[in-house]
């Protein structure tokens, strides 16, 4: 067989020599120049991702803070500074980070999120280097960003006001910062180009393709608030439970020699899926309103989505996991009117619940 493969390969190579080639004199590229251009393009790509992420965090920071009363015990201390070193970036982008921001083993403030404790009065600025927190040295090296957040959380147990020593313009100074509280559902920028976002019960992921699709910050806020509502309302936990219930029938079928390939479990997981999506739209609008963001025009994103995906305009069938875009638009308009009526009467901006034991039953009035 090996001889046969070698003969086929040889015939293939001979055949390629007879293929028609380009007829113009193509400029020869220099390997060094190509390498330099690749380096430049990585820097451009990283700078673009950085700007997307900063925009995303500036918007989501307001929503995560406003939703604290809805998040129960799922909260954490919040400084609001994006602190990173070269290991905070993908391996193939670390050289680009070094070129753009002189990133190395040491943590550095990349930016302070708008409206956060770090941004108040210019407390922290891009380029500041954390030296210590309450006398505890700031971590360096791999996973330093994660360990710095853990250090903040540990020190916050002794009180929300921390003494943060920083190096700014080669001079050490100590600043006092009072941490806020935020929902512990980190918002992550995903590198995929798809028009999508998702929540997994622990975090929120907004894909790069969707960031390019957004026409304004309010559209970003609406999608982040929607995904945050999925986590707040425990939709992912509910879908997992539904899947397990349905899987009982898959197991019973398997006992009789029938391989259902998870049919019943997957069908059960879709139970109430459209209702969960509608509820996330509804609760998400309340989160936006609590953050003081305008909500009047937010449903229009579904008209733009319909233009990109016309099949979403039709009535969603039984197997669909999301409501049709016209349903979502009309449902959100009704929710907006409900919220505006409450605002006019100075009533608490709390979603209306069918069950007092639901996650939002202790929601406080908007501040």
Give the gist of this structure.
By secondary structure, this protein is an alpha+beta fold. The protein is built from eleven helices and eleven strands.
Mind explaining what this structure looks like?
With 367 residues, the chain is an alpha+beta fold. Helix content is 46%, strand content 14%. It contains eleven helices and eleven strands. Strands 5-4-6-7 form a four-stranded antiparallel beta sheet, covered by helices on one side. A three-stranded mixed beta sheet has the order 9-11-10. A two-stranded antiparallel ribbon has the order 1-8. Helix 2 crosses helix 3. The protein starts with a helix and ends in a 23-residue tail after the last helix. The C terminus is likely disordered.
Compute the number of helices.
11
Largest pleated sheet: 4 strands, antiparallel
Quaternary form:
single chain
Low-confidence stretches: 360-367
Shape by Cα distribution: globular
> What is the percent of helical residues?
40-55%
Strand ordering within the main sheet: 5-4-6-7
Distance between the termini: 76 Å
- Alpha-beta content class: alpha+beta
Order of helices and strands: HHEEHEEEHEEEEEEHHHHHHH
Number of strands: 11
- Roughly what fraction of the amino acids lie in strands? 5-15%
Rg calc: 26 Å
Could you report the average pLDDT, rounded to the nearest whole number? 84
Draw up the topology in text.
Elements lengths: L1 H16 L13 H36 L8 E4 L2 E4 L9 H8 L6 E5 L16 E5 L2 E2 L6 H13 L4 E8 L2 E8 L1 E4 L3 E4 L6 E3 L4 E4 H6 L3 H16 L2 H21 L7 H7 L3 H18 L10 H8 L16 H20 L23
Parallel strand pairs: 9-11
Antiparallel strand pairs: 1-8, 2-3, 4-5, 4-6, 6-7, 10-11
């Amino acid at each position: 067989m090996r001889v046969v493969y070698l003969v086929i390969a040889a015939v293939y190579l001979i055949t390629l020599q007879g293929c028609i080639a380009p007829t113009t004199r193509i400029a020869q590229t220099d390997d060094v120049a190509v390498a330099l251009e690749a380096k430049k393009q990585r820097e451009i790509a990283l700078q673009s991702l950085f700007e997307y992420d900063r925009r995303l965090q500036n918007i989501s920071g307001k929503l995560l803070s406003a939703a604290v009363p809805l998040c129960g015990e799922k909260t954490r201390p919040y400084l609001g500074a994006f602190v990173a070193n070269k290991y905070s970036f993908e391996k193939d982008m670390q050289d680009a980070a070094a070129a753009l921001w002189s990133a190395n083993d040491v943590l550095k403030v990349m930016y302070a999120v708008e409206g956060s404790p770090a941004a108040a009065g210019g407390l922290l600025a891009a380029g500041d280097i954390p030296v210590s927190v309450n006398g505890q040295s700031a971590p360096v090296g791999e996973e330093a960003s994660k360990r710095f957040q853990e250090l903040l959380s540990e020190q916050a147990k002794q009180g929300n006001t921390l003494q943060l020593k920083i190096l700014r313009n080669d001079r050490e100074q100590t600043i006092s910062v009072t941490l806020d509280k935020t929902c512990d559902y980190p918002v992550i920028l995903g590198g995929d180009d798809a028009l999508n976002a998702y929540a997994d019960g622990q975090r929120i992921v907004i894909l790069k393709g969707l960031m390019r699709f957004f026409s304004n910050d309010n559209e970003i806020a609406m999608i982040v608030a929607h995904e945050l509502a999925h986590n707040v309302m425990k939709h992912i936990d509910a879908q997992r439970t539904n899947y397990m219930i349905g899987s009982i029938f898959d197991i019973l079928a398997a006992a009789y020699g029938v391989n259902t390939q998870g049919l019943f479990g997957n069908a059960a997981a879709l139970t109430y899926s459209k209702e969960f999506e509608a509820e996330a739209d509804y609760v998400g609008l309340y989160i936006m309103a609590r953050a003081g963001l305008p909500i009047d025009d937010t449903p229009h994103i579904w008209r733009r989505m319909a233009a990109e995906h016309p099949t979403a305009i039709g009535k969603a069938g039984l197997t669909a996991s999301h409501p049709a875009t016209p349903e979502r638009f009309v449902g959100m308009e009704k929710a907006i009117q409900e919220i505006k009526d409450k605002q006019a009467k100075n009533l608490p901006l709390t979603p209306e619940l069918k069950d007092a034991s639901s996650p939002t039953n202790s929601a406080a009035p908007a501040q």
